[in-house]
Amino acid sequence: MFKLAGKKVVEVPPEEEYLYSPRVKMVGNEVVNLTLEEAAERDAEEAAYQSQKQANKYKELRRNAYLPIEEQLDMLYWDLKTGTTTFVDHRSSVKAAYPKPV
What we know:
Elements: E1 2-5, E2 8-11, E3 24-27, E4 30-33, H1 36-55, H2 57-65, H3 69-82, H4 86-97
Antiparallel strand pairs: 1-2, 3-4
């Protein structure tokens, strides 16, 4: 592992690697390592983001599984015209395949 020391990159001894975050920030025109507190805050933010992303994964899966809107509207039209339920069946099957997390 390496760290930025001023404008030089120096090697970090293995026993000190935990002290340095691979994350950096810009201060003026310099690249500076985050402090431990900043790194912990960033870790918490990233964990929250990943948790939210995982909780909303079903939305993306559903979006990809649904037929194009034109086809869904056609199904709906013909369901109303003929008394069938293909539109509702399609939507229900996608929702069943990718349930919303509780």
